[in-house]
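Good morning C.,

I know you're traveling, so I'll keep this short. The sequence:
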Amino acid sequence: MKSLDAPEFSRNYGFWSEAEQAALMNSRVAIAGVGGVGFQVGTKLARMGVASFAVADPEEFEPQNANRVPGASASTYGRSKVDVFREQVRDINPDAVVHRYHDGVTVENAAEFLAGATLVFDESETTHPEIGTTIARHARVLGIPDLLVVNVGFAATVTAFHPRSRFTFERFMGLGDDAPLDEIAQQKIDFGRFLPYVPPYSDLRGLVAMTTDGPTGERPSLPSIAPGVDLASAIGTTQAFLHLTAAAGVMNRRRSPIWAPRLALLDAYLMRGKVIRASRATHLRHVLTAALRDRFGRNPAASYTHADLARRAPAPPRP
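The tokens, ready to paste straight into the viewer:
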């Protein structure tokens, strides 16, 4: 394990103390999903000094990941995301411990995945709410924060679910606190809850595409771009810093972390930051603003309608 006077940490001390550095070095962070924000959150935390991780992701890198994930490149296409993550973290700190879960988070391995974690980042697929629910329920049992970081356009939001709060992950997503996981697995994501913030410069045709079935009966994933993912990882790791140092009992006149139902919001395009409240009313207010701007021709056009997606889809192989 590296020491406090390791040269890798020397410039950190201009902005935090040795006690806070020690708290980071003695923490363990679990990350569910390392295909986007989770990958950058993890590598940033490794540079900050965190040296123990549990990471879960069942997928391999594809060209679709290259627009936003440093770990996705021609040399890593087809390789496990958790394996690539471990390699990059070990390049930063050869002493780092990275436990990998190639099957992702499951009901069977969730307890092991979270064992010993100081906090967990839930960056699992929104199309599988049963995974996020499993993580949240285990985090409450363990008494650790469950962080949710979301990038949307050039913006990002972050919040955390307190293990003893009545405002749970399930409430945030519009799910029942006691609903069985198989029932939750059948539900589709409610963007009116999951996205309290919709940028006012949005082309809402993309939101329509994500909330309606396309020609194949499927719905496209939430689009993401590199600036938004970078911003999400920055505010996510900043909140993690506050949680990890607080968990270690380090008192240094820091502000408190953001807890749900409040979310911290940063928008690089608008150069604005604020704290908002998670609610359907917040979502509708932002959608209405974007709709009015669009009606008066003020919003730039994107290309994420069902027709756009179908046009860019690869042609099926010939029989």
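Safe travels,
E.
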